[in-house]
Amino acid sequence: GTTVEFLLPIASSMQSVTPEKTAATPTELEGMRLVLVEDNDMVAGVLERMLLKLKMEVSRAASGDEAQQLLQSDHTFDLLLTDIRMPGSLNGLDLARWVKTSHPQIGIVLMSGFIDNEKDFSEFTLIQKPFTAVEFAAALGNLRNGNELRYIGR
After folding, report:
1. Degrees (nearest 5) of the Cα angle 137, 140, 145?
2. Which phi and psi (to 5°) does residue 83 adopt?
3. Counting C-beta atoms within 10 Å of the first and last residue's C-beta, which end of the chain has fewer, N or C?
4. In this structure, are strands 125-128 and 151-152 parallel, antiparallel, or unpaired?
5. Is 25 left (phi over 0), alpha (psi -120 to 50) or beta?
6. What is the DSSP letter of 10?
7. Which of 141, 93, 97 is nearest to 118 (CA)?
8. Contact call for residues 109 and 128 (beta carbons, < 8 A)
9. Is the peptide bond before 130 cis (omega within 30 degrees of 0)?
10. Does 141 score more than 90 pLDDT?
Protein backbone atom coordinates (compact mmCIF):
# COMPACT_ATOMS: atom_id res chain seq x y z
CA GLY A 1 0.00 0.00 0.00
CA THR A 2 0.85 3.57 -0.59
CA THR A 3 1.28 5.92 2.35
CA VAL A 4 0.60 9.62 1.94
CA GLU A 5 1.59 12.14 4.59
CA PHE A 6 0.26 15.69 4.74
CA LEU A 7 2.11 18.27 6.80
CA LEU A 8 -0.19 21.18 7.52
CA PRO A 9 0.73 24.33 9.44
CA ILE A 10 -0.76 24.82 12.87
CA ALA A 11 -2.92 27.85 13.60
CA SER A 12 -0.83 30.97 14.03
CA SER A 13 -2.23 31.74 17.48
CA MET A 14 -0.17 28.95 19.02
CA GLN A 15 3.48 29.76 19.38
CA SER A 16 6.27 27.28 18.95
CA VAL A 17 8.93 26.58 21.59
CA THR A 18 12.56 26.61 20.52
CA PRO A 19 13.93 23.24 21.66
CA GLU A 20 17.46 24.47 22.37
CA LYS A 21 16.27 27.02 24.94
CA THR A 22 13.99 24.83 27.05
CA ALA A 23 15.09 21.23 26.53
CA ALA A 24 15.43 18.90 29.47
CA THR A 25 18.84 17.26 29.49
CA PRO A 26 19.28 13.48 29.15
CA THR A 27 20.52 13.42 32.75
CA GLU A 28 17.27 15.01 33.95
CA LEU A 29 15.22 12.39 32.09
CA GLU A 30 17.22 9.36 33.25
CA GLY A 31 15.21 7.11 35.54
CA MET A 32 11.95 9.00 35.13
CA ARG A 33 8.91 6.71 35.04
CA LEU A 34 6.64 7.39 32.09
CA VAL A 35 3.28 6.01 30.97
CA LEU A 36 3.18 5.91 27.16
CA VAL A 37 -0.37 5.77 25.81
CA GLU A 38 -0.55 5.01 22.08
CA ASP A 39 -3.03 2.74 20.31
CA ASN A 40 -0.85 2.15 17.24
CA ASP A 41 1.56 -0.63 18.23
CA MET A 42 4.18 0.30 15.62
CA VAL A 43 4.21 3.98 16.70
CA ALA A 44 4.31 2.92 20.35
CA GLY A 45 7.31 0.69 19.65
CA VAL A 46 9.24 3.51 17.97
CA LEU A 47 8.43 5.91 20.82
CA GLU A 48 9.32 3.34 23.46
CA ARG A 49 12.76 2.74 21.89
CA MET A 50 13.39 6.50 21.81
CA LEU A 51 12.37 6.86 25.47
CA LEU A 52 14.49 3.90 26.54
CA LYS A 53 17.50 5.47 24.79
CA LEU A 54 16.87 8.50 27.03
CA LYS A 55 17.12 6.00 29.95
CA MET A 56 13.51 6.51 30.98
CA GLU A 57 11.42 3.70 32.47
CA VAL A 58 8.44 3.13 30.16
CA SER A 59 5.10 1.44 30.78
CA ARG A 60 2.85 1.15 27.74
CA ALA A 61 -0.92 1.33 27.48
CA ALA A 62 -2.93 0.99 24.26
CA SER A 63 -5.90 3.09 25.41
CA GLY A 64 -6.89 5.76 27.88
CA ASP A 65 -8.88 3.17 29.83
CA GLU A 66 -5.85 0.88 30.13
CA ALA A 67 -3.65 3.82 31.21
CA GLN A 68 -6.20 4.86 33.83
CA GLN A 69 -6.17 1.34 35.33
CA LEU A 70 -2.36 1.38 35.37
CA LEU A 71 -2.24 4.78 37.07
CA GLN A 72 -4.84 3.73 39.65
CA SER A 73 -2.72 0.73 40.66
CA ASP A 74 0.70 2.43 40.58
CA HIS A 75 1.14 5.96 41.91
CA THR A 76 4.88 6.27 41.26
CA PHE A 77 4.89 7.62 37.70
CA ASP A 78 6.51 10.95 36.85
CA LEU A 79 5.08 11.57 33.39
CA LEU A 80 2.21 10.78 31.07
CA LEU A 81 2.80 10.90 27.30
CA THR A 82 -0.49 10.26 25.56
CA ASP A 83 -1.87 10.35 22.07
CA ILE A 84 -5.09 12.34 21.81
CA ARG A 85 -7.17 10.21 19.45
CA MET A 86 -7.66 6.71 20.82
CA PRO A 87 -10.36 4.07 21.13
CA GLY A 88 -12.24 3.46 24.35
CA SER A 89 -14.23 5.60 26.72
CA LEU A 90 -11.26 7.89 27.52
CA ASN A 91 -9.43 9.72 24.74
CA GLY A 92 -6.06 11.30 25.48
CA LEU A 93 -7.51 14.66 26.48
CA ASP A 94 -10.01 13.05 28.86
CA LEU A 95 -7.20 10.96 30.35
CA ALA A 96 -4.98 14.03 30.75
CA ARG A 97 -7.74 15.92 32.57
CA TRP A 98 -8.35 12.93 34.85
CA VAL A 99 -4.61 12.68 35.63
CA LYS A 100 -4.37 16.42 36.28
CA THR A 101 -7.11 16.11 38.90
CA SER A 102 -6.33 12.74 40.46
CA HIS A 103 -2.50 12.71 40.16
CA PRO A 104 -1.38 16.37 40.04
CA GLN A 105 2.26 15.38 40.62
CA ILE A 106 2.42 13.68 37.20
CA GLY A 107 3.61 15.80 34.28
CA ILE A 108 1.43 15.55 31.18
CA VAL A 109 2.43 15.80 27.53
CA LEU A 110 -0.18 15.29 24.80
CA MET A 111 0.88 14.18 21.34
CA SER A 112 -0.98 14.15 18.06
CA GLY A 113 -0.45 14.14 14.34
CA PHE A 114 -3.66 16.10 13.89
CA ILE A 115 -5.02 18.92 16.03
CA ASP A 116 -8.78 19.59 15.83
CA ASN A 117 -9.08 22.67 18.00
CA GLU A 118 -6.10 24.28 19.71
CA LYS A 119 -8.26 25.73 22.51
CA ASP A 120 -9.01 22.21 23.76
CA PHE A 121 -5.34 21.60 24.50
CA SER A 122 -4.23 24.95 25.91
CA GLU A 123 -3.96 23.64 29.48
CA PHE A 124 -1.37 21.00 28.50
CA THR A 125 1.95 20.74 26.72
CA LEU A 126 1.30 19.44 23.20
CA ILE A 127 3.85 17.91 20.85
CA GLN A 128 3.15 17.20 17.20
CA LYS A 129 3.88 13.72 15.83
CA PRO A 130 6.24 12.72 14.43
CA PHE A 131 8.81 14.21 16.79
CA THR A 132 12.47 13.72 17.61
CA ALA A 133 14.12 13.05 20.96
CA VAL A 134 15.26 16.71 20.98
CA GLU A 135 11.69 17.93 20.47
CA PHE A 136 10.47 15.58 23.21
CA ALA A 137 13.15 16.94 25.56
CA ALA A 138 11.93 20.45 24.68
CA ALA A 139 8.38 19.46 25.61
CA LEU A 140 9.57 18.15 28.97
CA GLY A 141 11.70 21.25 29.53
CA ASN A 142 8.65 23.37 28.78
CA LEU A 143 6.60 21.35 31.24
CA ARG A 144 9.34 21.50 33.89
CA ASN A 145 9.64 25.27 33.57
CA GLY A 146 5.90 25.82 33.85
CA ASN A 147 5.88 27.89 30.68
CA GLU A 148 2.63 29.22 29.30
CA LEU A 149 3.94 28.42 25.85
CA ARG A 150 2.85 24.85 25.36
CA TYR A 151 3.10 23.84 21.70
CA ILE A 152 6.10 21.94 20.34
CA GLY A 153 5.91 21.52 16.59
CA ARG A 154 7.50 22.09 13.25
Report:
1. 125
2. -65, 155
3. N
4. parallel
5. beta
6. P
7. 93
8. no
9. yes
10. no
Burial of 39 (0-12, 13-18, 19+ CB in 10 A): middle
What is the signed CA dihedral for 29, 33, 82, 16, rounded to 10 degrees? Answer: -20
pLDDT value of position 13: 41
Whether residue 92 contacts residue 113, with contact meaning beta carbons closer than 8 Å, is answered with: no
Determine the pLDDT at residue 120. Answer: 64
In this predicted structure, which of 8-12, 124-128, 134-138 has the lowest mean pLDDT?
A: 8-12
Q: pTM for the full model?
A: 0.77
Contact 93, 83 (CB under 8 A): no
Amino acid at 64: G
Instruction: Determine which helix (DSSP H) or strand (DSSP E) holds 102, and give its type and residue range.
Output: helix 92-102
